[in-house]
Amino acid sequence: MIQPVVALLLLLLLIPIQEKDIYKERREEMVRKSIERRGVDDKAVLKAMRTVKRHLFVPSSQVEAAYEDHPLPIGAGQTISQPYMVAFMTEVIRPNPQMKVLEIGTGNGYQAAVLAEIVKEVYTIEIIPELGQSAAKRLKTLGYDNVQVKVGNGYHGWPEHAPFDAIVVTAAAEAVPPPLLAQLKDGGRMVIPIGSTSQTQTLTLIEKKKGKALTTKLMPVLFVPFTGGDKKE
Ligand code: SAH
């Protein structure tokens, strides 16, 4: 018969292993039910969504809800985007391992981590200093060495690292900020929610061809507002 003490020790050893599996299973279910079933089929995107531990990007009070398909509060009145939306927007830019991508609206860094799993370099800008700083720390701790975080107004982009192969904007703007279009490579793709922030906005694809912007409306969405106007940081 196993001694009660031994049994207890075995149980304690098993708990962390089981916990790990729970989140892996939930992530798998999230990808199958909320992402693949809704039409995202880029292999690299699906792999990244299966890899990034979303529960490490939400506040501790939200961990249990981390793999449900909706946005979650992350503090400072901001949200971590819905998993399907992150996957969809990542697929829209047609990511590949050679790309340099700019993200506006780091939040907790989840979208940046998903991008970093696929592309070569990610530059991401967050206007709320506490969020930007904690995202930078989190991404570093998790080993995402190919992501650089800057605190500032993303309206002006990151000219020192331009041009970018793609730009992902995760806050809703009234119109495409001209500096972002200028920093997009010719042939590059930008995905951005456009519209009045109190109503639904339209997720929009901008393709830059011979200096011109081709616009395609993708779907109605609801994002937090793009703040700061065109003010310099
Ligand atoms: N990309 C995040 C989504 C965060 S929500 C994710 O993966 O979940 C959008 C973020 O955009 C918020 O944190 C908000 O503070 C930020 N934001 C809004 N306006 C901005 C601006 N002008 N420049 C940079 N970040 C901005």
TrEMBL record:
One of its GO terms (biological process) is protein repair. It comes from the Bacteria. The keyword S-adenosyl-L-methionine applies. It comes from Pontibacter korlensis. Gene3D superfamilies: Vaccinia Virus protein VP39. Its main location: cytoplasm. GO terms for molecular function: protein-L-isoaspartate (D-aspartate) O-methyltransferase activity. It catalyses: [protein]-L-isoaspartate + S-adenosyl-L-methionine = [protein]-L-isoaspartate alpha-methyl ester + S-adenosyl-L-homocysteine. Catalyzes the methyl esterification of L-isoaspartyl residues in peptides and proteins that result from spontaneous decomposition of normal L-aspartyl and L-asparaginyl residues. It plays a role in the repair and/or degradation of damaged proteins. The gene is pcm. The active site is at residue 81. It is an enzyme of class 2 (transferase). It is found in: Cytoplasm. One of its GO terms (cellular component) is cytoplasm. Keywords: Cytoplasm, Methyltransferase, S-adenosyl-L-methionine, Transferase. Its EC number is 2.1.1.77. This is Protein-L-isoaspartate O-methyltransferase. Belongs to the methyltransferase superfamily. L-isoaspartyl/D-aspartyl protein methyltransferase family.
